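2.7 Reproducibility. Because tokenized structures are sensitive to small changes in the input, we list the exact sequence used for Extracellular solute-binding protein, including any N-terminal residues retained from the expression construct. No trimming or masking was applied before prediction.
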Amino acid sequence: MRVASRPVERLQPTDLLKAEYKNKLILTYPNDDDAVLFGYKQIVVEYGWDYLAELAAQNPKLIRGVPGSSAGVASGDYLASIAVGGDARPNGTQVFSDSERFNSWAQRGAIFKQAPHKAGAKLFMSWLNSQSTQEHAIATWTWSVRKDVAPPAGLEPLASYENTDPKAFARFMANRDAVERFRSQVELYLGKVHGLNEGNVTHG
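Resulting structure tokens (single pass, no recycling of outputs):
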């Protein structure tokens, strides 16, 4: 999945290698965030390592945390990002291909058995999963876990997309040796992680 400035109807992954995107891409370090790393895994499978080398040659701004990449497009300072999610409005939008793979998974939550404030935790989980919160805080830019909450404008129900598998990310994460090997390979192209975390890092 990509976030990009308008117009986006014709945007393809290879378009990001064009001259007009030089110095105008903002990317989350994939070697710092497992979900982003899996997105890059799907990119490399589809387009090969040469694509990643050419992407790095575009001199993208590399930051820590998914929200910062989306915010960079939302502000109008950058033209696009890839393998991230988030609200890119007002100057951008999400772009989902009909064919290329994209990452999707359900965010999980739990209450520890020995949680000191179980009542408060239950209230929070109830609020988070309520129809109102899912509709007004979650489904403004991504899919809700509730079937009675419609997806954001421009998106079809997640189950209608044949090019994503909500269980694939968990399978990828289960093979830690392969994950760390791929992380090291990506680091050769995009460098070691630097800077302050801007939120939502899932590595660890």
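The first strand starts at residue 2 and ends at 5.
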